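Journal club prep — side note

Before the paper discussion, L.F. wants everyone to see what a predicted structure for a comparable chain looks like in token form. Sequence:
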Amino acid sequence: VRGFTQSAPSLPNSGPVYRKIGRRKLVPYYDRAEIEDGAIAGRGLEICWLKSQTDLLFTQIQGSARVHLEDGSTLRINYDSYNGYPYTAVGRILIERNIIPKDQMSMQRIRQWMTENPDGATELRRQNRSYVFFHEVKLSDNDEAVGAQGVPLVPGRSIAVDKSLHVYGTPFFIEGELPIESAQAKTPFHRLMIAQDTGSAIVGPARADLYFGAGSEAGRVSGRLRHNMHFVMLVPNSLDPIARGRTMPLPEKRPSAKIARLFPAKDRKPAVTPQPPAVGPAGEPAGTTAVPAAKAASSGTVPSPVMRPEVRSDRHPRRHHRRRWRSPVR
């Protein structure tokens, strides 16, 4: 049972996955350890077989892959959904356990440690309970991977961002120094990039993953990236409050009269007009109906609320008020 779906028509199967217990209850899907132990085996869900669980783990982290099969053909797979568990970075666990120093952390170092420690690799891998599922895509070997926006990614121009904070298609200017030539090199990097993808490990307003394409060299470069850079989001001036003035403008006048004209109170009951009492045969009232004064005085027109008085700000745009607190002298 799938959860919420991606709005893009080309990615209809994105979102968390749940399993049903009984007739109505939904619980999180099997975690990584349960799936590796065969919780969903024998259902014909396999697309292909990889050489190692380490290759599968990094394929799930990247979100897409080119799989070279034994017959020489290439299979293209792309992210489909995941099992609903939060992503846990295995590299951070290795740093916390003092296995790999922080300044030496890279995808290559993680692969090396997992190859040299197969038993420890299994335990480390299962610390990340998140499990990504894929679907086959009909792309040639020359086509780029399709991002969460639903369009092909561009090497060196596409980035993955936190989709809960940013909108796909937003331009960002990235500036800094990256180890592109080697692990120690500092290559200047200044360019405009577009938000076109996302990932479960990308959390925060100034967090992004740069897309460098496919291949061994692109994998080596991306595996070394863990650097701080200038991360500038470009928005129109009409959406930037700082560009409109150094101080935030006061709220505009409340358009009460306009709202009253656009949305008249049509559901109000018509006013009740009091009737004169009927006179009986002996000159006495035959009977009266009590009408509340407030209801009798109501009319069919809805009065508009009083406009709020205009308030001027006397604060200087560059003046900052500071108050210094001093402890009492004893």
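L.F.'s comment for the group: Residues 81 and 133 are 5 Å apart (CA to CA). Keep this in mind when we get to the figures.
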